[in-house]
Amino acid sequence: MRGWLVLTLGATLLCSFAKDYKDVVEHPDASAILEQDKLPPPKRYTMPKGCITDDPDAIARGRYIFHNLNGKKAKTPPPKGLPRFIVVNGKKVPKQYGNCVACHNIEGAQGPGNVGPDLHRYKELFIDTGARDYAFVYQKIADARVDNPTTHMTINLTTGLFTPKEICEIASYVVSKKEE
Ligand code: HEC
After folding, report:
1. Per-residue pLDDT tens for 114-154?
2. Atom 11 (ligand 1) nearest CA
3. With CB atoms 3.0 to 4.6 Å apart as the test, which of 10, 30, 94, 170 could cross-link to 71 if both were Cys?
């Protein structure tokens, strides 16, 4: 009985606070901001010709994009042909990388996340077995919503985060044969 009283009193107090709070805090209309953040609709892509390559420089760039967050946070210098900073609207900003390792495990991953499937031995388990092909991997990295509308994966090409060439380099890394 006492418990109920305390609970009811507490709830009443809380409600009255909440009411006061509502009166003093502004409620700006955020729809313009939300509109800005809205993703463009899912897009299906054709994989460019010669996309998947065994060129070690391209794979090194793909690997670096996979394992790093951005050009400022990266602890080792990027491989040849991949900038640390880019210029956006006249301002020098760190280049955004993929940070795929936040969700996926793969060979050599440091503290990988497990939100997405394990991409360890991807060539042997997914490509060589015919379970997946290159076009699937390209589309998945470019815009995963096409085959999974509720995916938690980042959208990398439709958002303009990466160029088709960079998507090819990341895909080339994912499907490459790797040392343990
Ligand atoms: C926020 C978490 C997250 C991030 C970051 C992320 N992924 Fe994913 N990824 C997922 C999830 C979840 C799936 C499984 C669902 C799906 O297929 O959409 C997935 C699926 C995949 C697949 C398909 C595996 C298969 O054969 O079924 C590949 C390949 C892949 N991701 C590569 C990448 C690459 C490369 C990056 C970085 C550019 C990346 N992911 C970033 C969450 C993520």
Report:
1. 999 999 999 999 999 999 999 999 999 999 999 999 999 99
2. 116
3. 94
